[in-house]
Description:
Radius of gyration: 24 Å
Order of helices and strands: EHEEHEEHHHHHHHHHHHHH
Strand order of the largest sheet: 2-3-1-4-5
Structural class: alpha+beta
Number of helices: 15
Distance between the termini: 66 Å
Amino acid sequence: MDFTVIIMGRLEFASKRSIEQATNVIAHLLQTRYKNEVLYKDAAELLDAATNSLVAPREKFNCSEKVWMNTLHLLQQATGFSIAGDLHMWRILDGELQEHQLLEPNNDKTTVQAYFEGRSLINEEKWEEAKKALTKAISRFPRHAKALERRGYIHFEQGNTEAALADYAASLAVDSKRPEAYLGRALIRLSEEKWKDALDDLETCMKRSMPHHDVYLEALHRKGKCFMELGEYQKAIAAFNFFLTRPLLKDHPQYLFRRQVAFDKGRALAANRQLKEAITCFDEALNMPARNGKPDMAEILLHRGLAFQKNGQTGFLEDWKEAADQGSTRAAELLAEVG
């Protein structure tokens, strides 16, 4: 049985010695272990001594499970000598994601540990402590594109867009194919209501990733919202449709965003006067799990009621009453208007 395999990413090495060690280990494994049952046949296909990096351009392969396992082992060995970056590997069968592997440096080097500490502190929203840790990683290894991107995100969260843009630019100067920095810059453009500039970065982000990638789906959702702001509702609906048809497992980072996407699709359909379809979307959103309670039931009921009313159907008063009972000021205003 053959699988579709997609590999992409870049690893950085701290010195010529590190990349020579990786080259020697890969060459040895290719000669003695894999017997040509591996996707890469020569260390030179991946490792670039001139830039001290391993670059896996986005490529699609068809291979057996054994070849997948050998290639995974090969790249894991190379990752062990790196100091920054990552590699993504996806194994797909008949369009269904079977496995995703994220390979990152994982050793006791100060740079590596400082980056992991900073990333973990971001998850706790300890912005200043996270920034300090990431700055330590960057000071020890200035070509740390991931640390630069994550520090840019912190600057954005703190409202310092100028510093955020500088870090995103620095990250892209190291690795122009890293999608996260494009997404980060797009979020700034969205906050500034520069919809077309945001779209450019979102589309580049998607080109630098792939549909099973978390960052791709976030960019896709935001792209749909951009189209809504521009009044291009059919394009927005198409973006939301593609998101919602992805076969996401419950542990996928974007799974809980499906409720928000379904709600946004309903709003786009209603704005495009496809009211029956909009009502169906709102129904689906109500039955999906929420992420941090968003969008809340009151908001969905408010918009479903509006769609009911505009479509000449009953049920809008009940929706608005329930929404008002749950704290929707707008629903209470609408109820007052209709007496």
